[in-house]
Amino acid sequence: MIIEILLPLPLNKKTFYYKIQPENLNNIKIGGLVEVIFRKKKKIGLILKQHKKVDFNKKILFVERIFEDLYFSEEIIKSMQFISGYSCIHISLIFKLFLSGFVQKKIKFEEKRINVKKDKLRLSDCQKNALNTLSKVNLKKHSVITLHGVTGSGKTRVYMHNVIKKFLEGYQCLILVPEIILTKEWVNEIKKDFGVSPKVYHSSIKKSEKSRLWKSSILGKPNIIVGTRSSLFLPFSNLGLIVVDEEHDNSYKQEENLIINTRDFAIVRSNFSKCPIILSSATPSIETIFNCKKKKYERIEIRKRINKAPLPAIEIIDKRKEISLISVKLQKIISANLSEKKQTLLFINKRGYAPFIICKKCGFSKICPNCSSSLALHNYSSTQSILLCHQCNYKEKFIHNCLNCKENNSFIFPGFGIEKIYREIKKLYPNVKSFYISSDTIKNPDEYDGVLKKIIDNKVDIIIGTQLLSKGHNFPYLKTVGILNIDCLINNFDFRSFEKTYQQIMQVSGRAGRKSEKGNVYIETFQPNHPVIEMCKKYKLEEYYDWELELRKKNKHPPFSNLISLIISSKKESEALKFSNEITKKLRSFYSEIEIYGPVPSVISKKKLFYRFRVLIKFEKSFSNSHLKNFLKEIKSPSNLNFYIDVDPMSFL
Fold first, then answer.
1. Which of 215, 217, 175 is nearest to 196 (CA)?
2. Pairwise CA distance, residues 328 & 331, whole Å
3. Using only C-alpha atoms, what is the Rg of the chain?
4. Which residues contact 311 (CB under 8 A, 6 or more apart)?
5. pLDDT tens digit sequence for 491-509
6. Side-chain-side CA neighbours of residue 9 (13 Å)
7. pLDDT beyond 70 at 538
């Protein structure tokens, strides 16, 4: 017998033929894993088909080894095939992701009895209603449930009741979270509430633990796994429930190499597993709300916080009338909080001290030698001041002398980042406990946990933070949130900029007033009458979604159309442009019914020494795109070029 197998190789040819020894015929099964020799190297293959004979004129080798107990389920194969077709990625590369924790050796599993807490958790009336509604959904078949609850409403506790139920029935459950740094907090919360310790899976765990979880997944052992994007590529064979927490988060979209939206892939896996999936968020994505309105998804809402805590009052501060870096009004609020021993969080989603530097005499600005990106100033208040590229991490020591006009101390620092705000706070309140938190200061989960404990224990008065602090945290002493520089986001060129602004305001606002005392939020803006800010202020969330969908419909933006972005890059600009023009010319000649924009240089036209061009394809929902996607998948790029296909792009940089 001859088997047709898939190998985890970056080759256009999808499958390969190998022979099976007669004594091994009974061990062959579609989905089975085998070891073969390919170009004198051992490779792991996946059996897709069996043949009595094939029309093949080359020598066919025998399979070296059959892994009798390791089988990829029909669900995995169908999911890989679907996402390969949808995302224009060769299935062999997706298969490679599923092998990332592959282990041949036998692993001992502890058969521990799980004692789930019998004491019923106290639930709010809104949580009880949500659980009631959830119980009416048939959780024994595929369904997509959107759990839309305001910040602080206890969404985790609601969906965990169903996770625990499925787990006790003997199923595997996966809870996806957007950031590695958040996994420990989720696990601690689940352990505290339910007495169960989920397993954690992400790219940074030990190889031995990764292999153990991979093996338990393929063998179908009941488990609860909390993980980031990579956990979705575990070979589960007994999935009972998937949860995507903070489903709106852009971190679920893998932007480099294999470009896949893992939230959408999670829906695909749940579909072929015939199991439910819960998309949980206080600010669901426009696509999710659109599908709810179309009745494709079930929507369950939790409109009130637990403990009857009120949502914080949101007030707008008109920056046009201010000259201070931090408005006078916000300064007064901070002072009042200090006297009451309450905390203030100042939110600004900009790393460093200043986004760029410029010579006030000649206008010279420092640009990264590897990227078409300004160098940001970091650590300005210390002797270790550096200029850092946020694209490639190139850095150099900051010297306060202009190399262009030779003027000394001529640089000025327009704009502001988190470090400049921290420096201003230290000037205004020199004797209070304050610190700033960003990806530059927090390097690992343990360090992050230490910082969170200080905030929770009220050992810090003023916190300055980036989006690291905007997700899912419960700070009992935090009364006020100040949102700075929101205009930078709302005026972005991205058609999703309004949605991102709404999500960011609502998410970070939700950190305030989580205890019984009502919190307050102050948004500093030069556009106080902007519709998005007005709707956030009045908590007109349904009105916002209707307004945004109407705007998208008018402009024929997703979800009322589809986009595919092509990214072409090369160390030689002329070669990247030439290849971009060739692709565009072919597309226009073959597909007259779709819109094609470009090629144009990317917003960041040079990154890590590679010149980058983009082509944007736009087509209506009614357009049958399978032929187009097959065409794109078969494009062969020269070895000196990188060619990426981004279906449903989230970023346009």
1. 175
2. 5
3. 27
4. 150, 151, 305, 509, 510, 513, 539
5. 988 899 999 999 999 999 9
6. 18
7. yes
Q: Which 3 state secondary structure label does DSSP give 143? A: coil
Q: What is the mean pLDDT of residues 444-457?
A: 81
Q: Sort strands 395-397 and 386-388 into parallel, antiparallel or unpaired.
A: antiparallel
Other Cβ atoms within 10 Å of 169 Cβ, number: 12
pTM of the model: 0.92
- Which H or E run includes 565? strand 561-570
Amino acid 118: pLDDT: 54
User: What is the C-alpha to C-alpha distance for residues 26 and 606, in angstroms, rounded to an integer?
Assistant: 55
Helix 497-509 with 541-555: angle, nearest 10 deg: 170
Main-chain phi, psi angles of 317, to 5 degrees: -110, 120
Location of structure tokens 């609502």: 506
- Separation CA 233–CA 217 (nearest Å): 10
Question: CA of 122: how far to CAs of 127, 128, 189, 195, 511, in Å?
Answer: 9, 9, 15, 15, 22
CB 386 within 8 A of CB 378: yes
Residue-by-residue DSSP string for 4-32:
EEE-S-S-S--EEEEE--GGGGGG--TTE
Per the CB < 8 A criterion, the answer to whether 573 and 605 are in contact is: no
Q: How far apart are CA 172 and CA 242, in angstroms?
A: 9
